[in-house]
Write a structure and sequence with these properties.
single chain; alpha/beta; UDP-N-acetylmuramoyl-L-alanine:D-glutamate ligase; 6-stranded mixed β-sheet; 23% strand
Length: 465
């Protein structure tokens, strides 16, 4: 079957296309942003990418089914052509459900934060133990060097379960299509202000996906999060909770942080206390590891197999990823784009570098942080940074003045807390100013869910001078 992807160069769409090609389908697609790394990955697999969204692309490709990405909307020329010609179309989550997930043991990792890291760790734990899972992850796990794996003979499929909507014609969250038999819920906070009106709307989506888990499956939920506890109450499937609180079924205790790892005891039902070590820092990564431990034990793995996987886990790109040391200044990159993620990332960095000056650089790019929803929280989440840079709010002109984040107020709030704070127009201006103030021994961390104008290369060049 020839599958044609409109918007193929997005991370999820590209990895999904590669996964479906590996399962034997003919795949092609189009995009108006054809750039590395996804364009190179697709080209290496012989997948033809047509530039732009033109009606003529459909004639050129002559597909059996069109997969329409969730960034596409009515008015897109290719989308209109597909509708006009009555060509069969669907969404990426739905085609994955039909071609990859049905009949498998589907382990779906959900939550506002930690989905990519936890699903990568879950996939690697199964792989390390010889279970060879299928998976699709919205990042690049360094153990696999790609965000997908096709193993049709395996009983397992691991999926990053995004609560974002599916497509313009299907406004349900993506994870509804993933048929979870094991559902991990890491945490629930307000996010995606462009599609959810309130935290109650988000909780309703999670409640509904929880109700899809069969009675012979399992829900593995963060017992420390009150929003998660609310939505799993009365779940039809068996429930296991994880966290640091005494009431959790899988509990971490005696946590210690070394320079490069987190070590903790695991208390679990009917098992001896076991000490585990994960080569990642931060309390949030301890929780991620606990969730994977609970799921792995449920599926028959031993603590020895789990520790072997943890010991060899290489994290995921753009999650506390060290980019290098330039002029004596260490530079990290992180995907954090929500106040909670920013706070936890900086806490972990502070644990790693308790005596160093930390310079935090943040791009308010997501549809939530561009708005004033987190006006107060953004000023409070930089506690563990000494210097804060915030770039000009992305696509500011698309928001009404009443909706916009007020950066001047954020700056003043940060300065009132004793922080050195800068609001600068772009990556180039920030890199130049960082170069002016940075000293050997400083630690710089860049936080954005986009490319941030190539700021990492700019920092490398400026700091090296």
């Amino acid at each position: 079957m020839h599958l044609y992807f409109i918007g193929i160069c997005g991370t999820a769409m590209g990895n999904g296309a590669l996964l479906l090609r590996a399962l034997g389908h003919e795949v092609s697609g189009s995009d108006d942003n054809i750039y590395p790394p996804m364009s190179l990955l697709l080209a290496e697999q012989g997948i033809n990418i047509l530039p732009g969204y033109r009606a003529s692309n459909i004639d050129t490709a002559n597909p059996d089914v069109v997969i329409i990405g969730n960034a596409m909307s009515r008015g897109n020329e290719e989308v209109e052509t597909v509708l006009d010609r009555r060509i069969p179309f669907t969404s990426l989550p739905e085609i994955l459900k039909r071609e990859v997930i049905q009949g498998k043991n589907s382990i779906v990792v959900t939550g506002t934060h930690g989905k990519s890291t936890t699903s990568s760790l879950m996939a690697w734990t199964l792989e390390s133990a010889g279970r060879k899972p299928n998976f699709l992850i919205g990042g690049v796990p360094e153990n696999f060097h790609q965000g997908y794996q096709a193993r049709p003979e395996s009983e397992f499929v691991v999926l990053e379960g995004d609560e974002y909507d599916t497509a313009f014609f299907d406004k349900r969250s993506k994870f509804f299509h993933y048929l979870p038999t094991t559902l991990i819920i890491n945490n629930i906070e307000f996010d995606h202000a462009d599609i959810f009106d309130s935290i109650d709307d988000i909780k309703l989506a999670f409640k509904r996906v929880t109700n899809l888990v069969p009675r012979n499956g399992i829900v593995i939920a963060n017992g420390d999060d009150p929003n998660v506890r609310d939505i799993v109450r009365g779940a039809f499937a068996p429930l296991a909770t994880f966290g640091l609180s005494d009431h959790c079924d899988f509990r971490a205790a005696n946590i210690e942080f070394t320079d490069h790892s987190s070590v903790f005891d695991v208390h679990s039902p009917g098992r001896a206390v076991t000490r585990l070590e994960i080569p990642m820092l931060g309390e949030f990564n301890v929780r991620n590891a606990l969730a994977v431990t609970a799921a792995a034990l449920h599926h028959g793995l031993t603590f020895d197999e789990i520790q072997q996987a943890f010991s060899t886990f290489k994290s995921i790109k753009r999650r506390m990823e060290k980019k290098g040391e330039f002029g004596g200044v260490i530079v990290y990159d992180d995907f954090a784009h929500h106040p909670t993620a920013i706070r936890e990332t900086l806490q972990a960095l502070r644990q790693r570098f308790p005596q160093n000056r930390v310079i935090a650089i943040f791009e308010p790019r997501s549809n939530t942080t561009r708005r004033n929803i987190f006006q107060r929280e953004l000023a409070e989440c930089f506690t563990d940074a000494d210097v804060v840079f915030i770039s000009q709010i992305a696509r500011l002109n698309l928001l009404s003045p009443e909706e916009r984040l007020d950066p001047d107020r954020v700056m003043q709030d940060l300065r009132d807390k004793g922080k050195e704070a800068y609001y600068l127009p772009d990556a180039a201006a920030i890199a130049e100013q960082v170069g002016e103030i940075a000293k050997p021994g400083d630690v710089v961390i860049v936080m954005s869910n986009g490319s941030f104008g190539g700021i990492h290369e700019m920092l490398k060049e400026r700091l090296s001078r």
